[in-house]
Amino acid sequence: MRRLTKKKALNLVRELDAFPKVPESYVEATASGGTVSLIAFTFMAVLAFLEFFVYRDTWMKYEYEVDKDFSSKLRINVDITVAMRCQYIGADVLDLAETMVASDGLKYEPVNFELSPQQRLWHMTLLHIQERLREEHSLQDVLFKTALKGAPPAQPPSEDSATPPGACRIHGHMYVNKVAGNFHVTVGKAIPHPRGHAHLAALVSHDTYNFSHRIDHLSFGEEIPGIINPLDGTEKISPDHNHMFQYFITIVPTKLNTYQISADTHQYSVTERERAINHAAGSHGVSGIFMKYDISSLMVKVTEQHMPLWQFLVRLCGIVGGIFSTTGMLHGMVGFMVDVVCCHFRMGVYRHPEEDPPNEQLINEDPVPTENHTQ
Predict the structure, then answer these.
(1) pTM of the full predicted structure?
(2) E-only strand ranges, the chain
(3) How buried is 134 (Cβ within 10 angstroms: 0-12 exposed, 13-18 middle, 19+ buried)?
(4) Among 60, 125, 198, 361, which is disulfide-ready with 141 (CB 3.0 to 4.6 Å)?
(5) pLDDT exceeds 60 at position 151
(6) Which residue, among 246, 309, 300, 310, has the nearest Cα to 272 in the 3D structure?
(7) Spatial separation of the C-alpha atoms in residues 248 and 272, rounded to whole Å
(8) What residues have CB less than 8 Å from 209, skipping those under 6 apart?
(9) Residue ranges covered by each domain of the chain
(10) For residue 170, what are the β-bridge partners?
(11) What's the rounded Cα separation, in Å, for the pair 252 and 266?
């Protein structure tokens, strides 16, 4: 009884076979079929090889959500060179709440404003990258993928010069409240004031004003090596002494998660404006460099994604099965057309009146027997 049940199960499974086997005696191998098979296998190998590179590639996924973090501090990373002596200028931050932030994290270093040939080459390369980033926005994804932890790339060190340094490099970082504010570099050192803050500019002559500057780096949040920001490499030359440079910056909090790094940073967009200070002409203001920033309420989550293994296998099966089926159908259609043309040609040959052989009729006549009547 058990043997009969097992036999019935095997018969049932055999009837469910979706891949019937054809006896080898019924299979005929042809040269055309072998050629098509060779071409099909070549296409399969090439497409499977290319699909493997697609599987290895990654892409960046952007998601947006409301930024609910209001209590944390915002870090400002600065590296700017101003064409004035360090004792004549001061940099600080005044936020929207009229709170002056101490700039203890900033360092003032006397340097020459003119760049050496190596530094100028580095600066021109950075400007070229900035130009390409404005035209090809997809390059930002490449920068996100290649971001690595480590020392940030910096310009070559300045060469020793016989002329005394007449410019000041302000570099470092500071932590500010996560509200709108104004980071500025102007004449005189900052001094506390009951109604806000002020700069001690009375002792500086107007003839020494020169706010030509070069921004080597300006970023917000955690500093990520390899990321190029919109103001990196910016260079402005002041045409006169009393000149104001303004940068209106919109900061977008960004969470970056890639296979190489995970960090909380910030992206930003900027709008520039500059004008000469001339009180007689109605152009009022204070000479200096002013970077007014505002923080967006939306946060961007940038995540590096990879094709799942199951999707890669499904695509491979689609490639193999699709090419196999398509080449089989094409081979069958071509064979059918060849057979139709050849059969039509043969039928035309046999029916052509000039080439038809003469029809010969063989008449076999039996001789009529003669009968002899004997009387």
Answers:
(1) 0.69
(2) 58-66, 73-82, 89-95, 100-101, 106-111, 167-177, 181-187, 189-193, 196-200, 213-221, 234-236, 243-257, 262-276, 288-295, 298-306
(3) exposed
(4) 60
(5) no
(6) 246
(7) 6
(8) 84, 187, 241, 242, 243, 287
(9) 31-57+307-328, 69-239+287-296
(10) 80, 108
(11) 6
What tokens appear for 329 in the block?
């159908």
* CB burial string 148-178: b at 16+ within 10 A, e below: eeeeeeebeebeeeeeeeebbbbbbebebbb
- Is residue 218 within 8 A of residue 229, CB to CB? The reply is yes
Q: Where are the alpha helices (DSSP H) in 192-308?
A: none
Q: What are the structure tokens assigned to 365, written together?
A: 């006549």
For residues 79 and 173, what is the distance between their CA atoms, to the nearest angstrom? 9
Angle between helix 309-351 and helix 31-56 axes, rounded to 10 deg? 160
Task: State residue 136 phi and psi, 5-degree precision.
Answer: -115, 95
For the stretch 256-295, pLDDT in tens is: 888 877 888 888 999 999 988 887 777 787 889 999 999 9
Q: Which residue from 290, 283, 284, 224 is spatially nearest to 82, judged by alpha carbons? A: 290
Distances (CA, A) of 5 to 11, 13, 339: 10, 12, 50
The per-residue pLDDT for 292 is 94
pLDDT in tens, 53-74: 888 888 888 889 998 888 888 8
Gap between the Cα atoms of 159 and 116, Å rounded: 7
Higher pLDDT, 94 or 343: 94
Buried b (16+ CB within 10 A) or exposed e, 334-343: eeeeeeeeee
